[in-house]
Amino acid sequence: MGGSPEDRIRALCIWRGAPTIEPIAGGITNRNYLVRDGARRCVVRLGEDIPVHQISRANELAASIAAHAAGLSPAVLHHAPGVLVLDYVDGRPLTPEDVGAHRTLERILPLIHVCHRDIPKHFRGAAMIFWVFHVIRDYAASLKDGCSTHMHRVGGLLDKAAVLERAAGPFEIAFGHNDLLAANFLDDGRRLWLIDWDYAGFNTPLFDLGGLASNNELSAKQEDWLLEAYFDTAVTEDLRRRYRAMKCASLLRETMWSMVSEIHSTIDFDYGAYTAENLARFNRAFDTFAQS
Questions:
Q1: Are 55 and 178 in contact (CB under 8 A)?
Q2: Where is each Aminoglycoside phosphotransferase domain found (predicted)?
Q3: Is the peptide bond before 110 cis (omega within 30 degrees of 0)?
Protein backbone atom coordinates (compact mmCIF):
# COMPACT_ATOMS: atom_id res chain seq x y z
CA MET A 1 0.00 0.00 0.00
CA GLY A 2 1.43 3.35 -1.03
CA GLY A 3 1.09 6.80 0.47
CA SER A 4 2.18 8.23 3.79
CA PRO A 5 1.88 6.32 7.07
CA GLU A 6 -1.11 8.49 7.93
CA ASP A 7 -2.75 7.57 4.60
CA ARG A 8 -2.21 3.88 5.33
CA ILE A 9 -3.83 4.29 8.74
CA ARG A 10 -6.83 6.25 7.39
CA ALA A 11 -7.40 3.56 4.75
CA LEU A 12 -7.98 0.84 7.36
CA CYS A 13 -11.55 -0.46 7.34
CA ILE A 14 -12.10 -0.25 11.12
CA TRP A 15 -12.77 3.46 11.65
CA ARG A 16 -16.25 4.80 12.37
CA GLY A 17 -15.35 8.29 11.19
CA ALA A 18 -12.30 10.36 10.28
CA PRO A 19 -9.56 9.38 12.76
CA THR A 20 -7.07 11.79 14.27
CA ILE A 21 -3.50 10.51 14.15
CA GLU A 22 -0.51 11.46 16.32
CA PRO A 23 2.97 9.92 16.12
CA ILE A 24 4.22 8.23 19.29
CA ALA A 25 7.93 8.78 19.88
CA GLY A 26 10.32 6.02 20.83
CA GLY A 27 9.86 3.14 18.39
CA ILE A 28 13.11 1.81 16.93
CA THR A 29 11.75 -1.13 14.91
CA ASN A 30 8.24 0.24 14.23
CA ARG A 31 6.49 3.53 13.61
CA ASN A 32 3.79 3.94 16.25
CA TYR A 33 0.74 6.18 16.25
CA LEU A 34 -2.00 7.12 18.69
CA VAL A 35 -5.28 7.13 16.80
CA ARG A 36 -8.55 8.59 18.09
CA ASP A 37 -11.75 7.45 16.47
CA GLY A 38 -14.54 9.21 18.34
CA ALA A 39 -14.30 8.10 21.97
CA ARG A 40 -12.06 5.16 21.12
CA ARG A 41 -8.28 5.34 21.32
CA CYS A 42 -5.89 2.78 19.92
CA VAL A 43 -2.24 2.34 18.98
CA VAL A 44 -1.30 1.55 15.39
CA ARG A 45 2.08 -0.06 14.82
CA LEU A 46 3.45 0.05 11.28
CA GLY A 47 6.31 -2.27 10.45
CA GLU A 48 7.21 -4.87 7.86
CA ASP A 49 9.21 -8.04 8.43
CA ILE A 50 12.87 -7.25 9.17
CA PRO A 51 14.88 -10.31 8.08
CA VAL A 52 18.22 -8.92 9.28
CA HIS A 53 16.76 -8.76 12.80
CA GLN A 54 14.79 -12.01 12.42
CA ILE A 55 11.54 -10.10 13.05
CA SER A 56 8.43 -11.77 11.67
CA ARG A 57 5.26 -9.73 12.00
CA ALA A 58 3.19 -12.92 11.87
CA ASN A 59 5.06 -14.12 14.95
CA GLU A 60 4.62 -10.73 16.63
CA LEU A 61 0.88 -10.90 15.96
CA ALA A 62 0.55 -14.43 17.35
CA ALA A 63 2.56 -13.49 20.44
CA SER A 64 0.52 -10.30 20.96
CA ILE A 65 -2.74 -12.26 20.83
CA ALA A 66 -1.37 -14.89 23.24
CA ALA A 67 0.00 -12.21 25.58
CA HIS A 68 -3.43 -10.58 25.76
CA ALA A 69 -5.06 -13.94 26.48
CA ALA A 70 -2.51 -14.45 29.27
CA GLY A 71 -3.42 -11.05 30.76
CA LEU A 72 -0.16 -9.28 29.95
CA SER A 73 -0.89 -7.02 26.98
CA PRO A 74 -3.68 -4.95 25.44
CA ALA A 75 -6.07 -6.54 22.97
CA VAL A 76 -5.35 -6.78 19.25
CA LEU A 77 -8.18 -4.91 17.53
CA HIS A 78 -7.15 -5.34 13.90
CA HIS A 79 -4.25 -6.49 11.79
CA ALA A 80 -3.21 -6.36 8.17
CA PRO A 81 0.13 -6.86 6.42
CA GLY A 82 2.55 -4.47 8.11
CA VAL A 83 -0.14 -3.10 10.44
CA LEU A 84 -1.05 -4.01 14.02
CA VAL A 85 -3.83 -2.12 15.85
CA LEU A 86 -3.92 -2.45 19.63
CA ASP A 87 -6.24 -1.22 22.34
CA TYR A 88 -4.77 1.90 23.96
CA VAL A 89 -3.40 1.65 27.50
CA ASP A 90 -3.51 4.98 29.31
CA GLY A 91 -0.24 4.51 31.12
CA ARG A 92 3.32 5.70 31.17
CA PRO A 93 6.34 3.67 30.09
CA LEU A 94 8.72 2.82 32.89
CA THR A 95 12.25 4.19 33.00
CA PRO A 96 15.38 2.30 34.06
CA GLU A 97 15.22 4.23 37.33
CA ASP A 98 11.67 2.93 37.87
CA VAL A 99 12.74 -0.65 37.21
CA GLY A 100 15.60 -0.26 39.68
CA ALA A 101 13.17 0.41 42.54
CA HIS A 102 12.64 -2.79 44.52
CA ARG A 103 8.86 -2.35 44.70
CA THR A 104 8.73 -2.12 40.90
CA LEU A 105 10.87 -5.24 40.51
CA GLU A 106 8.40 -7.05 42.76
CA ARG A 107 5.61 -5.99 40.38
CA ILE A 108 7.57 -6.95 37.25
CA LEU A 109 8.54 -10.46 38.33
CA PRO A 110 5.00 -11.93 38.12
CA LEU A 111 4.70 -10.64 34.55
CA ILE A 112 7.88 -12.49 33.61
CA HIS A 113 6.55 -15.68 35.21
CA VAL A 114 3.27 -15.37 33.26
CA CYS A 115 5.17 -14.73 30.03
CA HIS A 116 7.39 -17.75 30.49
CA ARG A 117 4.74 -20.19 31.69
CA ASP A 118 1.37 -19.12 30.33
CA ILE A 119 1.83 -17.63 26.86
CA PRO A 120 2.53 -21.07 25.32
CA LYS A 121 -0.95 -22.14 26.50
CA HIS A 122 -2.48 -19.51 24.20
CA PHE A 123 0.01 -19.24 21.33
CA ARG A 124 -1.31 -20.54 17.99
CA GLY A 125 0.72 -21.65 15.00
CA ALA A 126 4.44 -22.00 14.43
CA ALA A 127 6.49 -20.28 17.14
CA MET A 128 9.93 -18.75 16.83
CA ILE A 129 13.02 -19.81 18.71
CA PHE A 130 15.09 -16.82 19.80
CA TRP A 131 18.56 -18.26 20.35
CA VAL A 132 20.81 -15.36 21.15
CA PHE A 133 24.05 -17.03 20.04
CA HIS A 134 22.59 -17.82 16.63
CA VAL A 135 21.35 -14.21 16.42
CA ILE A 136 24.86 -12.95 17.21
CA ARG A 137 26.43 -15.16 14.52
CA ASP A 138 23.79 -14.07 12.00
CA TYR A 139 24.42 -10.42 12.87
CA ALA A 140 28.12 -10.98 12.23
CA ALA A 141 27.30 -12.27 8.74
CA SER A 142 25.00 -9.29 8.09
CA LEU A 143 27.75 -6.89 9.18
CA LYS A 144 30.16 -8.55 6.75
CA ASP A 145 27.61 -8.44 3.92
CA GLY A 146 26.97 -4.76 4.63
CA CYS A 147 30.65 -3.79 4.80
CA SER A 148 30.14 -2.45 8.32
CA THR A 149 32.67 -0.07 9.81
CA HIS A 150 32.63 -2.38 12.85
CA MET A 151 34.05 -5.42 11.02
CA HIS A 152 37.41 -5.04 12.79
CA ARG A 153 35.60 -5.82 16.06
CA VAL A 154 33.49 -8.74 14.91
CA GLY A 155 36.06 -11.56 15.19
CA GLY A 156 36.80 -10.73 18.82
CA LEU A 157 33.09 -10.41 19.64
CA LEU A 158 32.39 -13.84 18.14
CA ASP A 159 35.22 -15.35 20.22
CA LYS A 160 33.66 -13.88 23.35
CA ALA A 161 30.22 -15.14 22.31
CA ALA A 162 31.62 -18.68 22.04
CA VAL A 163 32.98 -18.43 25.58
CA LEU A 164 29.60 -17.26 26.84
CA GLU A 165 27.68 -20.01 25.03
CA ARG A 166 29.84 -22.69 26.63
CA ALA A 167 29.43 -21.12 30.06
CA ALA A 168 25.67 -20.54 29.93
CA GLY A 169 24.46 -24.16 29.76
CA PRO A 170 22.68 -26.37 30.60
CA PHE A 171 19.58 -24.58 29.40
CA GLU A 172 15.96 -24.57 30.47
CA ILE A 173 13.38 -23.48 27.91
CA ALA A 174 10.57 -20.98 28.40
CA PHE A 175 8.62 -18.57 26.19
CA GLY A 176 10.63 -15.36 26.29
CA HIS A 177 9.76 -11.74 25.59
CA ASN A 178 13.46 -11.25 24.77
CA ASP A 179 13.42 -7.44 24.82
CA LEU A 180 12.83 -6.35 28.41
CA LEU A 181 13.60 -2.67 28.05
CA ALA A 182 12.05 -0.43 30.69
CA ALA A 183 9.84 1.26 28.09
CA ASN A 184 8.20 -2.07 27.24
CA PHE A 185 6.48 -1.97 30.65
CA LEU A 186 3.51 0.40 31.01
CA ASP A 187 2.09 1.52 34.37
CA ASP A 188 -1.57 2.63 34.22
CA GLY A 189 -1.68 3.45 37.95
CA ARG A 190 -3.31 0.14 38.83
CA ARG A 191 -1.19 -2.49 37.14
CA LEU A 192 1.75 -3.08 34.82
CA TRP A 193 1.45 -4.17 31.19
CA LEU A 194 4.14 -5.85 29.07
CA ILE A 195 4.11 -4.78 25.41
CA ASP A 196 6.04 -5.07 22.12
CA TRP A 197 6.47 -8.71 21.10
CA ASP A 198 8.76 -8.23 18.08
CA TYR A 199 11.37 -10.71 19.35
CA ALA A 200 9.13 -13.15 21.23
CA GLY A 201 10.02 -16.82 21.10
CA PHE A 202 11.22 -19.82 23.04
CA ASN A 203 14.47 -19.19 24.87
CA THR A 204 16.17 -19.80 28.21
CA PRO A 205 14.57 -17.78 31.04
CA LEU A 206 18.04 -16.54 31.98
CA PHE A 207 18.06 -14.40 28.85
CA ASP A 208 15.03 -12.38 29.96
CA LEU A 209 16.38 -12.10 33.50
CA GLY A 210 19.80 -11.05 32.27
CA GLY A 211 18.27 -8.65 29.75
CA LEU A 212 16.11 -7.03 32.42
CA ALA A 213 19.17 -6.51 34.59
CA SER A 214 21.48 -5.26 31.85
CA ASN A 215 18.92 -2.98 30.19
CA ASN A 216 18.12 -1.34 33.52
CA GLU A 217 21.53 -1.57 35.23
CA LEU A 218 20.38 -3.48 38.28
CA SER A 219 22.81 -3.87 41.15
CA ALA A 220 24.42 -7.22 42.03
CA LYS A 221 22.20 -7.38 45.13
CA GLN A 222 19.10 -6.83 42.99
CA GLU A 223 20.23 -9.49 40.54
CA ASP A 224 20.61 -12.03 43.34
CA TRP A 225 17.13 -11.14 44.60
CA LEU A 226 15.74 -11.54 41.08
CA LEU A 227 17.26 -15.00 40.67
CA GLU A 228 16.18 -16.18 44.12
CA ALA A 229 12.64 -14.88 43.65
CA TYR A 230 12.30 -16.27 40.12
CA PHE A 231 13.61 -19.77 40.91
CA ASP A 232 12.36 -19.77 44.53
CA THR A 233 15.69 -21.10 45.77
CA ALA A 234 19.05 -19.92 46.99
CA VAL A 235 21.43 -18.80 44.24
CA THR A 236 24.27 -21.24 43.63
CA GLU A 237 27.56 -20.19 42.09
CA ASP A 238 26.74 -22.36 39.06
CA LEU A 239 23.43 -20.54 38.49
CA ARG A 240 25.04 -17.16 39.05
CA ARG A 241 27.75 -17.86 36.47
CA ARG A 242 25.26 -19.15 33.87
CA TYR A 243 23.12 -16.09 34.48
CA ARG A 244 26.07 -13.73 34.10
CA ALA A 245 26.96 -15.39 30.79
CA MET A 246 23.43 -14.81 29.47
CA LYS A 247 23.46 -11.24 30.76
CA CYS A 248 26.65 -10.63 28.76
CA ALA A 249 25.06 -12.29 25.72
CA SER A 250 22.07 -9.96 26.05
CA LEU A 251 24.36 -6.94 26.00
CA LEU A 252 26.32 -8.31 23.03
CA ARG A 253 23.13 -8.95 21.09
CA GLU A 254 21.94 -5.39 21.77
CA THR A 255 25.30 -4.05 20.63
CA MET A 256 25.30 -6.01 17.38
CA TRP A 257 21.61 -5.24 16.81
CA SER A 258 22.58 -1.58 16.81
CA MET A 259 25.56 -2.17 14.53
CA VAL A 260 23.28 -3.84 11.98
CA SER A 261 20.68 -1.10 12.39
CA GLU A 262 23.31 1.50 11.53
CA ILE A 263 23.38 -0.06 8.06
CA HIS A 264 19.77 -1.06 7.49
CA SER A 265 17.35 1.04 9.53
CA THR A 266 15.45 3.97 8.03
CA ILE A 267 14.09 5.12 11.41
CA ASP A 268 15.43 8.44 12.74
CA PHE A 269 17.50 7.25 15.70
CA ASP A 270 21.15 7.72 16.73
CA TYR A 271 22.25 4.12 16.31
CA GLY A 272 25.93 5.07 16.36
CA ALA A 273 25.67 6.45 19.89
CA TYR A 274 23.54 3.47 20.94
CA THR A 275 26.19 1.10 19.60
CA ALA A 276 28.98 2.87 21.49
CA GLU A 277 26.99 2.88 24.74
CA ASN A 278 26.11 -0.81 24.58
CA LEU A 279 29.57 -1.89 23.43
CA ALA A 280 31.11 -0.17 26.45
CA ARG A 281 28.58 -1.84 28.77
CA PHE A 282 29.22 -5.24 27.18
CA ASN A 283 32.98 -4.91 27.54
CA ARG A 284 32.62 -4.01 31.23
CA ALA A 285 30.24 -6.91 31.86
CA PHE A 286 32.42 -9.40 29.98
CA ASP A 287 35.53 -8.32 31.90
CA THR A 288 33.65 -8.86 35.16
CA PHE A 289 32.40 -12.24 33.96
CA ALA A 290 35.89 -13.35 32.85
CA GLN A 291 37.32 -12.46 36.28
CA SER A 292 34.62 -14.37 38.20
A1: no
A2: 20-238
A3: no
Tell me the C-alpha distance between 83 and 104, whole Å: 32
Q: How confident is residue 26, by pLDDT bands cut at 50, 70 and 90?
A: confident
Amino acid (one-letter) located at 162:
A
Task: Note the pTM of the prediction, 2 decimals.
Answer: 0.93
Q: Where are the beta strands (DSSP E) in 138-231?
A: 174-176, 185-187, 192-194, 201-203
Q: Domain residues of the chain, as ranges?
A: 5-87, 92-291
18 class by beta-carbon count within 10 Å (0-12 exposed, 13-18 middle, 19+ buried): exposed
Query: pLDDT tens across 268-278, in order?
Result: 889 999 999 99
> Residue type at 287?
D
CATH class of 5-87: alpha beta
Class of domain 92-291: alpha beta
pLDDT tens, position by position, 76-133: 999 999 999 999 999 999 999 999 999 999 999 999 999 999 999 999 999 999 999 9
Other CB atoms closer than 10 Å to residue 238's CB: what's the count? 9
**What three-state secondary structure class fits 264?**
helix
